[in-house]
Amino acid sequence: MGLLRTMMPPKFQLLALLAFAVAMFFLENQIQKLEESRVKLERAIARHEVHEIEERHTQEGLREREAPSAAGSEDVVVIYNRVPKTASTSFTNIAYDLCGKNRYHVLHINTTKNNPVMSMQDQVRFVKNVTEWGEMKPAFYHGHVSFLDFTKFGVKKKPVYINVIRDPIERLVSYYYFLRFGDDYRPGLRRRKQGDKKTFDECVSAGGSDCAPEKLWLQIPFFCGHYSECWNVGSHWALEQAKYNLVNEYLLVGVTEELEDFVMMLEAALPRFFRGATELYKTGKKSHLRKTSEKKPPTKESSAKLQQSAIWKMENEFYEFALEQFQFVRAHAVREKDGELYLLAQNFFYEKIYPKN
Predict the structure, then answer these.
(1) What is d(CA 116, CA 112) in angstroms, rounded to the nearest whole number?
(2) Is 144 a catalytic residue?
(3) From which residue to which does the signal peptide run (predicted)?
(4) Which residue, among 179, 176, 169, 178, has the nearest Cα to 292 in the 3D structure?
(5) What is the pTM of this model?
(6) Sheet holding 105-108, edge to edge
(7) Is the link from the previous residue into 138 a cis peptide, with omega within 30 of 0?
């Protein structure tokens, strides 16, 4: 190259260098274009792979809807072991209104004398029904029964538990007047204490049995379950067991005071059952059923007297525990904007999906 340069005139040397520079620029430009084309091709392939995955999921979803018996969601059972006087009728009627549209069965668990504790043989029967009664699946069971641990019976798939609880004094006041005056759900039905005109405040002042602190002991045993200690009034073991079950055995536990949020989160988590529930709750005629008639709020003195009892402190501790857990779940699922609640969008995604085929 050096010999060639000495033999070439300066003008030709300049032209040669210029031609070389142009060639290198052209080559680099082509390499850059090839690199850009490679990146575009990889992106196109990636989009195609994601599209194939989404299309496959869509087709699987369509097949599930066309062939319900083959879909995994068709084997789901939800149990709502409803605590009395916690707006359970309002919520249950949403399930009844949606069951035809969303294609599932609703079954009411009606126990003799509303006894929340089942005999051992009835526990076995109930577990067998829930797990093996294929004709009724998917199913939504509801009734005033305490929590039942399905793992004790050796079943492979447990039901999904949900529930709603209420401020313990407000729940007791509502139940007190319900026994005397009924509600607007079945106004003509004669209640057990009908004719007793004594107010809740008068009952507390007189030390009556229907407003005694022991009557507050209900939400803890409902969550504690079918153990004898659960029903020993004032048991600290029962309180801790109820907390354990609430966190570990229940998908979601709402509170009466924030029922709309509970319905909204259930619709997001279990659309197979609750698709359309939020709108129905807001606009439906059955959303606020069973308002207790003639109910009078207790005075501060009556509430203060009940709050002095160890039983109230334990029931209230459980309620506050449930409320805190519910608000924690809600804070990660729901936002409020301009006075309206809305669910957060999906906040995770998948990438680097292998193998490619």
Answers:
(1) 9
(2) yes
(3) 1-23
(4) 178
(5) 0.77
(6) 105-108, 139-142, 77-80, 160-165, 250-255
(7) yes
By CB neighbour count within 10 A (0-12 exposed, 13-18 middle, 19+ buried), where does 140 fall? Answer: buried
Of 57, 100, 234, the C-alpha closest to 49 is 57
* Structure confidence at residue 70 (pLDDT): 41
Q: Which of 57, 142, 236, 332 is catalytic?
A: 142
Q: Is the pLDDT of residue 357 over 80?
A: no
In tens, the pLDDT along 98-127 reads 999 999 999 999 999 889 999 999 999 999
At 351, is the secondary structure helix, strand, or coil?
coil
Inter-residue contact 162 to 141 (CB < 8 Å): no
| CA–CA dist 53, 351 (Å, integer) | 12
Closest CA to 315 of 179, 218, 245: 218
| 142 included as an active-site residue | yes
**Is the distance from CB of 80 to CB of 114 less than 8 angstroms?**
no
Selecting among 48, 57, 105, 144, the annotated active-site residue is: 144
The rounded Cα 194 to chain-centroid distance in angstroms is 37
CA–CA separation, 353 and 225 (whole Å): 44
Here the tokens at position 171 are 């729940």
Cα–Cα distance for residue pair 314/122, rounded to 1 Å: 30
